[in-house]
Design goal:
Phenylalanyl-tRNA Synthetase, Chain B, domain 3, alpha+beta, single chain, 7 helices
């Protein structure tokens, strides 16, 4: 990783078993690989549906890694949004929206592996990265331009300019991935219980999709901390 990554003592104190995955992919180019990515999404979505032939929420919620995310969100009286995305595919016939390969690859792997992931344009990240636990209601501009406030005890990622993403409120607008993004940082929030192997598999899935859709994509770094 070219970026310095700091984990504060609060993280180690409050969430001692949490793990975080980071992957940098470069040479994404301006082409979003629409045709190839569309084919990948179609095949993978059908495989995801076939993996849940008799979907029952209660039973699925007891499996890994969903049970770990459910436990984290329950602390804040919230439900895990990736489960809702999975159910929209299984129960409502929906798919991954065509928003460009760098984001579609992340969404697809997120629903397949059920690991919470944020994507950021590396070129808009300023200085060192810090993983921390919110203690004050710091605000940042959310992905859609809405004002977001960090929730006390929530995990979040920031650079030297401000918050990039948090578990409960998602990514920011300043560093969002767009059609012109050349280099992306994919960040996995591995809440307590999520294994290192699951995170590595997930990140490799994202890169596999990207390399198929954008042949010039280059894996610059991948690690779990």
């Amino acid at each position: 990783m070219e970026k310095v990554i700091n984990i504060t003592p609060l993280v180690k104190s409050i969430y001692p078993e949490a793990k975080f995955g980071l992957m940098v992919v470069k040479r994404l180019g301006s082409a979003v690989g629409c045709s190839a990515m569309g084919d990948i999404v179609s095949v993978e979505v059908e495989q995801i549906r076939s993996s849940y032939p008799d979907y029952q929420r209660k039973a699925v919620m007891e499996t890994e890694p969903l049970c770990h995310y459910a436990a984290y969100y329950k602390r804040f009286q919230k439900s895990y949004p990736v489960l809702g995305q999975l159910e929209s595919i299984l129960l409502k016939g929906k798919s991954i929206p065509p928003v460009g390969a760098p984001v579609e690859a992340m969404f697809l792997a997120e629903i397949k592996n059920l690991l919470l992931t944020a994507g950021h344009d590396l070129n808009f990240i300023e200085g060192a990265l810090t993983i921390d636990v919110a203690m004050a209601s710091v605000s940042y501009e959310g992905l859609l331009g809405q004002e977001q406030h960090l929730v006390r005890n929530d995990l979040y990622l920031s650079d030297e300019k401000g918050v990039l993403s948090s578990v409960l409120n998602g990514p920011d607008k300043r560093t969002k991935i767009t059609a012109t993004t050349q280099s992306a940082l994919y960040f996995v929030y591995g809440v307590e219980g999520v294994t290192e192997q699951l995170i590595y598999t997930h990140l490799n899935n994202i890169f596999s999709y990207l390399s198929q859709a954008i042949p010039g994509a280059e894996l610059q770094a991948i690690e779990v901390i």
